[in-house]
């Protein structure tokens, strides 16, 4: 089987095997075709096939060679190595590269094709540029905190009791509404920065907690007042800065959601000195052009990184897009960090969970809640689809990145973690921060089920722009539309 990345695609097209290509009859083959405007230095100007033999010994995964270089060098080095000896004899290949490399589809195509072909020796790990690594990198735990916890740096000790306090008195170790709202605040605090207007804001500086009566009222910040008020007591009880509190609390919060990665946390953000400018928050009613431009202005985020950050919508619910309904989820698994949101946003819309004609909302594929189905019993709300998610999933610049995450849990989680590492330090000098990632609680280990079509939905409901092959997915059982749980425990009734 061959996966082909053509000159017009940013993903993988339908499998192809050329006449006389005997490799296609026995082992998966990855074929990359150079785009018209990009001619990599390869032996063939048209295509190059690589035999992708499965790794014979999965225990070899402890060894790898890393390619932390540019796109062309990655491809040349990988192809050169692959042709020097059978891939089955190679140690696992870890492809690490600056996350902006995904701006070009080559590595994206390579990684997704490798994963889908079952090539266990390839691990795709987008990461921040090597030059962006903090000077005070994670060290072996050598400092003993007052409670006896060993950490890498003394500056990390205050976050040990903070994590315990947050889990006990706010999150209750659940991926619930408080966790959702606090994690949302990490984005709203960090994105308030502009390269075009350096005085517009300080990025991840805790301004929300230092100006709690003003910033939550800015456009796009509707609903952030709840998380701000929830975090203020923790700021008073613990010796940490406001910016550190917001990002650390977000890392603790998302760790309660099955499927989420353990986020990086760097400590040492100075407190905000002023309010940021208004209108720096992307809105669900914004065009894709405007959203991509805002992210690029804030921190040179690529379209791929924007799509990666939107994985947060897998655990998001809206209270203010439609003022008539509360806690409207963006996918059918709002308490699990999974790829379901990338699937369901691609489905044909049939209605609205509440009222019509709301700014920033389009028809959803699962609009029904139990108020409509179960005679008014329960407080489940049907699924809401944001106009911005709908548009990004169908825009030629981002559609294949969006589709490429469907049922690729590890790839999605790694990509999200890399993009969050960049977002969480906007406005700060990484070299002056201290890596305290070791004090972020380990995420819950509950198994995440593969993506699946909700009951009554199937591949016939897909609205695809990207020509890459779509994964084969199961369909949830049931004669009627899937009801989305309102509570973390899966029930339909909770406070």
UniProtKB/TrEMBL annotation:
Amino-acid positions noted as binding Ca(2+) 1 in the UniProt annotation, renumbered to this chain: 189, 203, 205, 207
Binding site for heme b: 313
GO molecular function: heme binding; metal ion binding; peroxidase activity
Keywords: Calcium, Disulfide bond, Glycoprotein, Heme, Hydrogen peroxide, Iron, Metal-binding, Oxidoreductase, Peroxidase, Secreted, Signal
Superkingdom: Eukaryota
Active-site residue list: 188
Ligand binding (Ca(2+) 2): 314, 331, 333, 338
The protein, known as: Peroxidase
């Amino acid at each position: 089987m061959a996966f082909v990345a053509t000159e017009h695609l940013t993903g993988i097209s339908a499998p192809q095997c050329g006449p006389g290509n005997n490799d296609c009859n026995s082992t998966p083959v990855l074929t990359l075709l150079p785009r018209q405007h990009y001619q990599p230095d390869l032996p063939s100007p048209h295509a190059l096939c690589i035999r992708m033999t499965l790794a014979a010994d999965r225990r070899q995964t402890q060894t790898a060679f890393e390619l932390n270089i540019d796109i062309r060098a990655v491809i040349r080095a990988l192809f050169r190595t692959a042709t020097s000896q059978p891939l089955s004899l190679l140690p696992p290949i870890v492809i690490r590269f600056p996350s902006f490399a995904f701006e070009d589809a080559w590595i994206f195509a390579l990684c997704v094709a490798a994963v889908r072909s079952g090539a266990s020796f390839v691990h795709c790990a987008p990461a921040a540029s090597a030059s962006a690594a903090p000077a005070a990198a994670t060290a072996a735990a050598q400092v003993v905190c007052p409670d006896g916890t060993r950490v890498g740096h003394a500056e990390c000790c205050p976050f040990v009791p903070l994590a315990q306090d947050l889990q006990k008195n706010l999150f209750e170790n659940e991926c619930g509404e408080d966790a959702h709202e606090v994690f949302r605040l990490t984005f709203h605090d960090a994105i308030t920065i502009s390269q075009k207007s350096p005085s517009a804001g300080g990025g991840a500086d805790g301004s929300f907690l230092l100006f709690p009566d003003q910033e939550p009222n800015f456009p796009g910040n509707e609903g952030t007042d709840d998380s701000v008020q929830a975090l203020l007591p923790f700021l008073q009880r613990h010796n940490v800065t406001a910016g550190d509190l917001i990002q650390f609390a977000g890392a603790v919060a998302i760790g309660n959601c099955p499927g989420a990665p353990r986020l990086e946390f760097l400590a040492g953000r100075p407190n905000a000195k002023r309010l940021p400018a208004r209108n720096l928050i992307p809105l669900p009613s914004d065009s894709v052009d405007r959203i991509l431009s805002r992210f690029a202005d804030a921190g040179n985020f690529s379209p791929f990184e924007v799509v990666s950050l939107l994985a947060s919508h897998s655990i998001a619910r809206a209270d203010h897009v439609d003022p008539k309904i509360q806690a409207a989820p963006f996918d059918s698994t709002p308490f699990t960090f999974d790829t379901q949101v990338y699937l369901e946003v691609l489905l044909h819309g049939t209605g609205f969970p509440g009222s019509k004609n709301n700014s920033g909302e389009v028809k959803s594929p699962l609009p029904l809640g139990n108020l409509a189905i179960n005679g008014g019993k329960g407080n489940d709300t049907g699924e809401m689809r944001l106009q911005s998610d709908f548009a990004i999933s169908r825009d030629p610049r981002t559609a294949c990145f969006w589709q490429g995450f469907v049922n690729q849990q590890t790839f999605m989680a790694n990509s999200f973690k890399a993009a969050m590492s960049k977002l969480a330090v906007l406005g700060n000098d990484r070299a002056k921060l201290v890596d305290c990632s070791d004090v972020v609680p380990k995420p819950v280990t509950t198994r995440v089920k593969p993506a699946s079509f909700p009951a009554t939905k199937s591949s016939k409901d897909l609205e695809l722009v990207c020509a890459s092959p779509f994964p084969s997915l199961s369909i949830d059982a049931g004669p009627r539309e899937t009801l989305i749980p309102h509570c973390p425990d899966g029930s339909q009734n909770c406070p």
